[in-house]
């Protein structure tokens, strides 16, 4: 298992957790956060604390997801920045393409610029 695979698994896991945390929230106040406080009474871990926790969790998971995506860029296989642009798949493109020479033979049937002038 290479580094990129580990990053990919972590990205999928964090994205799933972020989806769960966002889905638990309800912007109209009827989500999980309101069920802990129920009717305006403050309990241990009541509405305010649950909302703060979900809000901070959302920002933390979103920041972690962005950091993992940026860090995974360095772990992509074969994406080193020191490669020469002329080298593709380990072969030099200038030597892998056969050189063609122009055909310099002149046919007797070809017209020259002086033939069409009238002479």
Model description:
This protein is mainly alpha-helical. It is built from 4 helices and 2 strands, in the order αααββα. Strands 1-2 form a two-stranded antiparallel ribbon. Helix 1 (3-24) runs antiparallel to helix 3. The chain is elongated and about 100 Å long.
In short:
Helix content is 49%, strand content 3%. With 119 residues, the chain is mostly helical.
Low confidence ranges: none
Give the biggest beta sheet. Answer: 2 strands, antiparallel
Radius of gyration over all CA atoms, rounded: 33 Å
Terminal CA distance: 79 Å
Overall geometry comes to elongated
Helix percent reads 40-55%
Which range does the strand content fall in?
Answer: under 5%
Describe the protein's topology.
Blueprint: H1 3-24, H2 32-37, H3 47-72, E1 87-88, E2 91-92, H4 93-96
Antiparallel strand pairs: 1-2
Helix pairs in contact: 1-3
Features:
119 residues, mainly alpha, two-stranded antiparallel sheet, 4 helices, 49% helix, elongated
């Amino acid at each position: 298992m290479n580094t990129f695979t580990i990053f990919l698994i972590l990205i999928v896991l964090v994205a799933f957790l972020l989806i769960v945390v966002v889905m638990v929230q309800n912007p109209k106040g009827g989500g999980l956060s309101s069920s802990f406080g129920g009717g305006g009474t403050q309990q241990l871990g009541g509405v305010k604390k649950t909302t703060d926790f979900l809000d901070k969790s959302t920002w933390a998971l979103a920041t972690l997801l962005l950091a993992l995506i940026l860090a995974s860029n360095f772990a992509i296989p074969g994406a080193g920045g020191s490669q020469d642009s002329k080298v593709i798949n380990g072969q030099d493109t200038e030597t892998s393409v056969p050189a063609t020479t122009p055909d310099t033979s002149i046919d007797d049937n070809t017209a020259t610029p002086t033939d069409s002038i009238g002479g």
